[in-house]
Amino acid sequence: MTKSKVAAALLCFFFGCLGVHRFYVGKVGTGILWLFTGGLFGIGALVDFIMILVGSFKDKSGNALA
Predict the structure, then answer these.
(1) What is the per-residue burial (b if ≥16 Cβ within 10 Å, else e) of 10-43?
(2) Of 36, 39, 41, nearest to 13 (Cα)?
(3) Which alpha helices (H) appear in the chain, and where do they start and end?
(4) Is the model's pTM score more than 0.85?
């Protein structure tokens, strides 16, 4: 199932330090890592947000967000 780029961007913007956007796209392992490290101290969440906006962020299966 294709995940929404807009939904992932909003989740990352508001809850990026908790890794909610990573759980949304099925990346549970890194979602837990983001949860316990505050989005890798905020830097990982920022990188993810930029990657979502430019379209290079993929879901667990390697599919681009739509």
Answers:
(1) ebbeebbbbbbbbbbbebeebbeebbeeebbeee
(2) 39
(3) 5-15, 20-24, 28-41, 43-54
(4) yes
For residues 25 and 2, is the Cβ–Cβ distance under 8 A?
A: no
Mean residue pLDDT across the chain? 96
What's the CA gap between 33 and 35, in Å, rounded? Answer: 5
How do residues 24-51 score in pLDDT, each as one tens digit?
Answer: 999 999 999 999 999 999 999 999 999 9
Token pair recorded at residue 42: 């905020």
Query: Which pLDDT tens digit goes with each residue over 2-26?
Result: 899 999 999 999 999 999 999 999 9
pLDDT of residue 52 exceeding 90, the answer is yes
Q: How many CB atoms lie within 10 A of CB 64?
A: 12
